[in-house]
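Standup notes
- DV: blocked on the single-chain target, sequence here:
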Amino acid sequence: EPTLEPTPTPTAEPTPAPTNEPTPFPTTPVPTSCEGRKFYFTVFDGCTNKDVPDSNVVVVYDTVEDCCVQRFNNVQSCISYDICAPTAEPTDDPTPAPTTEPTLEPTPTPTAEPTPAPTNEPTPFPTTPVPTSCEGRKFYF
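- DV (later): unblocked, structure below
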């Protein structure tokens, strides 16, 4: 395993066996301070900095606000957890504010007045055409 610092005086040949003493410098870095933590998005925690992201995380953000704007389009509707500023657990009730997420289908244009009650009689013309009879079909070559 590599060390953080170079060996003071390397030997010409590899060491034949492990040494009994530990190396003078640790082989793992010091835990990241709160100021040095980056935020990333997970489906479970939203924007968070609580652990070191795994290798599947490809986008990291400098601040929780940056993550929220990119992932939730705003800070107000952002789901986040900052390990350096923990808060109480979220409530079971969703927030009453509407989401700003786009819908897959457009919203139908509302009418100025409510529509009257449906009629009991069918419309004079069917809304779908009658299937063409066999005699009325054309042949194509």
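- Follow-up: The beta strands are 40-42, 46-48, 80-81.
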